[in-house]
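Weekly structure sync - notes
Attendees: PM, LS, DV (DV joined late)
Agenda: review two folding runs queued last week.

Item 1: First target. Sequence and structure tokens pasted below for the record.
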Amino acid sequence: MSDITLISGSTLGSAEYVAEHLEEKLNQVGFTTEILHGAELDELKCEGIWLIVTSTHGAGEIPDNLLPLFKQIEQQKVDLSHLKFGAIGLGSKEYDTFCGGIVTADRILQDRGAKRIGDRLEIDVTEHEIPEDPAEVWLENWIILLKND
């Protein structure tokens, strides 16, 4: 069993790259991890720790490879009261739906009882050519919060 399950939602691959980079950093400090690029509910334990990394698709939507998971969570009214999570979104402030994917995912998880650890990180890819950089800075603080929770 892994300490942290990283779940990425991506259309063009940026969120996958960020998730893979963060997985490497988590492994370096002793966490065991599992990474899923897109996920279905039956692949996951609805407890423990998830780290969601997602881009935004279309008009502020969760990307297609992650949308089924969040639809299942909502439709099946899954109890996530034993789940903690972190939330990282990628988007462009050029759109009014900036980071809409992670905003929606965050809301759904909390509506079902999950507890977010730390603040949600929203990365503007027009300001950060390498989105892994701000994600890594955020992760350092998130790890401290996890250990103190």
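Item 2: Second target, run right after the first with the same settings.
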Amino acid sequence: MKKTIEVFSEEETRELGKQLGLHAKPGTVFCLQGDLGTGKTVLAKGMAEGLGVQEDILSPTFMIVREYKSGRLPFAHFDVYRLEEGDELYEIGWEEYLGLDGVILVEWADLMSDVMPGDAVWIRVTKNLAEGTDYRRIEIASEDSAAEDLLLDSLFPRA
């Protein structure tokens, strides 16, 4: 399943993340792709808000992973930009994180696509300055049929 959403402000990007967080199920892995400055961290902050995380969400660029446990589900926010291969992710406990009943968000996941689970939800954020400085095209896809309800509920809430 694949859905494309266009947003025209930082607030809309954050709200999309919030909706994904509100509807995320235990064990969901979100793989986030996008160039620098496309709004990946804004989406992550929205997702954390939807999960009920109380702490400030900071980019994990230099730490690789930040954990938040104050929400309805544990939230692990990874930034794998500085890693060179999947083995390094395993060295910091990737398997343990996958075994938790929380939500995982991996920024720059395309750099480690070989170790991402097959049922992950992939999110690609792109800019098009011709559409405006705050415009973002957000493509959300998953090969997993279980993710279909998450995407439908998040993107098109049922009344």
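Discussion on item 2: The domain at 2-155 is CATH 3.40.50.300 (Rossmann fold).
Action: LS to circulate a short write-up before next sync.
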